[in-house]
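Example record used in the benchmark description.
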Amino acid sequence: TAVMRNPVIDLTTKIGTSDNPDHSFFETGILFDFTTAPSPEALCTLQAKSPIVHAHKITSPVLLLLGAKDLRVPPSQGLSLHRLLRARGVESEVRWYPEDCHPLKSVATAADVIIHTHLWFSRYSR
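Model output (C-alpha cells):
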C-alpha cells in the first residue's frame, strides 16, 4: 500500500502547468531553455522517465493527498494517476484539500493527513 503527497506523475504535462517547469528537465538531465519549446526528443525523454509509464505495475492500494492550490505539482498530476488506477481496478482514494498548496501544512490539513494516513495503513497493511 502507498500514500502519496502531491506526486509528480507525468513530466511532460508538468512542464506546462507547474510554477517550476525547469525541474522536470533538471531531473532528467535535459538542458532547459525558457526561450524555446522542448524538442520532440526532449518530450520523448521526459515521457519515458515519467512515473505514469510504470503505473500499470501498481497493484497495491494508493491514497493520494492533493492540495488544490498547489502550483508546484498541480493536483491534475495525482488525479491522472487516480483515474488510471481506478480504470484498472486498483483501489485508489483522493483526499482533496481545497485551501492548501504544495506543503499541505495548514493545521486542519496536517491533522487530516496524519489521521487518514494512519487509517489507510491500518486498513491495508498486513
